[in-house]
Amino acid sequence: KAGVTQTPRYLIKTRGQQVTLSCSPISGHRSVSWYQQTPGQGLQFLFEYFSETQRNKGNFPGRFSGRQFSNSRSEMNVSTLELGDSALYLCASIWGETQYFGPGTRLLVL
Amino acid sequence: AQSVTQLGSHVSVSEGALVLLRCNYSSSVPPYLFWYVQYPNQGLQLLLKYTSAATLVKGINGFEAEFKKSETSFHLTKPSAHMSDAAEYFCAVSEGYNQGGKLIFGQGTELSVKP
User: Considering only CB atoms, which chain A residues are within 8 Å of B94?
Assistant: First the structure.
């Protein structure tokens, strides 16, 4: 089976812009989670989707949002980007209690 | 609330030496526990997981971990380090899929392997 795909892999934006990141889970997996990884805060949970419904959300401002489509692909959006949003954004494909991570999207906000 | 503590942000061993990376957790319910490895500029790769079956869990690349409920620990070991083991390692805890798929991660331990 193909692994988790995240696009794009690298992204440079400026403050105030918005960005959309995409994640395709492993075939057959219906649940996806998103994490932000920064040197200062480490790995932090953003949200989790199952069958197009957000089931859980981390402690992030409303500028961070996501959605899941009927084919289980997921997108996350960050509006009004801030310098502190520079991070590696990781998507995980969930099967049972196990999460399988993609390669991540590295976002740099200038 | 769940939490994970990884003792030592940086561990250095010689090639061929024992690798021991420490992880302690807190959870109000029987947890699911995981170790992930991250190589530079890559995502997280699952090394092994504890899901309430055997307390000694064997993973990929010769790693294993032992769940000790009395010590709330899930330390990762490998008998003989290889240069290719140099990476960052993360311990994570979950209260289970029905709790909304949220993993709580430790701060990570960077493993260096000296020739």
Answer: 97
Round the average pLDDT of chain B to a whole number and report it: 92
Q: Are A30 and A48 in contact (CB under 8 A)?
A: no
Interface list for A 45-104 with B (CB within 8 A): 45, 48, 50, 55-56, 58, 90, 92, 94, 96-104
The length of chain B, given as a count of residues: 115
Instruction: Tell me how many residue pairs between chain A and chain B have CB atoms under 8 A apart.
Output: 63
Per-residue model confidence (pLDDT) at position A60: 97
pLDDT (0 to 100) of residue B30: 73
Chain A residues close to B49, C-beta within 8 Å: 97-98
Is A4 in Cβ contact with B103 (below 8 Å)? Answer: no
Q: What is the pLDDT of residue A86?
A: 98
Q: Measured between alpha carbons, how far is A90 from A97 in angstroms, rounded to an integer?
A: 17
The shortest CB-CB distance from B100 to any of A42, A43, A55 is to A55
What is the length of chain A? 110
Q: Identify the pLDDT of residue B13.
A: 97
Which of A33-54 are b and which e, b meaning 16 or more Cβ less than 10 Å from the residue's Cβ? Answer: bbbbbeeeeebbbbbbbbeeee
Hey, is B82 helix, strand or coil? Answer: coil
Farthest CA pair distance, chain B: 45
pLDDT value at A5 more than 70 = yes
The residue whose two tokens read 């057959």 is A28
Judging contacts by C-beta atoms under 8 Å, the chain A residues touching residue B99 are 56
